[in-house]
Amino acid sequence: MKLTFSLVFLHILMISLWASAFPVIQIGLESFSPQHLAFVRLSIASVVLLVIAIATRMRLPDIKDIPLLLALGFLGFTVYHTALNIGEKTVSAGIASLLVSTTPIFSSLLAIFLFQEEFGKRKWIGSAVSFAGVALLTFSKENFVHSVNGILLILLAALAESIYIVCQKNLLKKYGFLSFVTYSIWGATISMLVFLPGLETELAHISVRSAISVIYLGLFPTVIPYMVLAYLTARIGSAEAAISLYLTPALSFFLAWLLLKDIPSAVSIVGSIITLCGVLLTHSKRRVVVKKTKFTMQR
Q1: Are 264 and 253 in contact (CB under 8 A)?
Q2: pLDDT at 111
Q3: Whole-angstrom Cα distance, residue 194 to residue 188?
Q4: Are 299 and 284 in contact (CB under 8 A)?
Q5: Are 183 and 42 in contact (CB under 8 A)?
Q6: In three state form, how does the secondary structure of 224-280 look?
Q7: pLDDT in tens, 197-248
Q8: Whole-angstrom distance, CA of residue 124 vs CA of residue 6
Q9: Given pLDDT bands bounded at 50, 70 and 90, which one contains residue 259?
Q10: How does strand 287-290 pair with strand 295-298?
Q11: Which of 137, 183, 225, 233 has the fewest CB atoms inside 10 Å of its own CB, making it the most exposed?
């Protein structure tokens, strides 16, 4: 697939918006509890998607599919965003984005046990390398006291997101990407109504900085990247569309430094590099050369 200017622009837009979410979350946490930040963020996204649903005359889901849609929305958005927000109370934005990048590894491991998909030697090695990096981040002396619980919560968020990804296949095929994501976010927002008490107090004392951050989170990282990913998936395939997302942690580290003056430690940098190398190894393609026909094929 030839990279055109529009495709490059869309890749950059998607990476930038998702990477920006991690430092902006920490700004939102200055005025909101983790649960309320997730609820307000998803509520804003739900309103935007409602407008889109009306404008596009989006079909309603079949009644028999609603329980699964609610369950996947709970995992992919309620658990993911709540656990991520709580984790970011003690984990830097850059490391949080790096930990979330392990989601594809969890997805691959789940696919083995749920759907008996193949998982080659390269992927096992990559998974081991990645989790070694996570262990270094988790159990280093400088991180242990303050962030071990946060790191585990963010890994829980990654696991919840991976279940959402692995179990969405049939619904995604039936409803399409935009409709499925819309139903998932609506379901997640409904499940988060339990966090409504106490929100009015936080809204009454919200800072301008936090207000802008939560509006930004609801309008941009929660809605636009999913639409861009749907378009790219249709144009160039899911694997090619997702590969650029591995650049997200690097950009998140830079944005965290720019917005929060958050400078990663040497141990954090080493652990992050090890983890990212493991993720890349897990999802790299092995090139096999067939001498007789003199061409290269990938498997």
Answers
A1: yes
A2: 74
A3: 11
A4: no
A5: no
A6: HHHHHHHHHHHHHCHHHHHHHHHHHHHHHHHHHHHHHCCCCCHHHHHHHHHHHHHHH
A7: 999 999 999 999 999 999 999 999 988 887 787 677 667 655 555 556 667 7
A8: 36
A9: confident
A10: antiparallel
A11: 233
Q: Can you tell me whether residue 68 is helix, strand or coil?
A: helix
Q: Catalogue the E-assigned strands of the chain.
A: 287-290, 295-298
Mean pLDDT of the 256-261 span: 84
Instruction: State the Cα–Cα distance between residues 216 and 222, nearest whole angstrom.
Output: 9
257: CB partners within 8 A, 6+ apart:
94, 263
**Do residues 69 and 183 touch, judged by C-beta distance below 8 A?**
yes
Greater confidence, 54 or 137?
54
Of 122-126, 142-146, 157-161, 166-170, the one with minimum mean pLDDT is 142-146
Closest CA to 160 of 184, 134, 133: 184
Sign of the Cα torsion 103, 109, 115, 116 reads positive
Global pTM reads 0.81
Cα angle 37, 42, 48 (rounded to 5 degrees) comes to 135
Q: Which residues pair with 289 in a beta bridge?
A: 296
Residue in 190, 238, 232 with CA at minimum distance from that of residue 67:
190
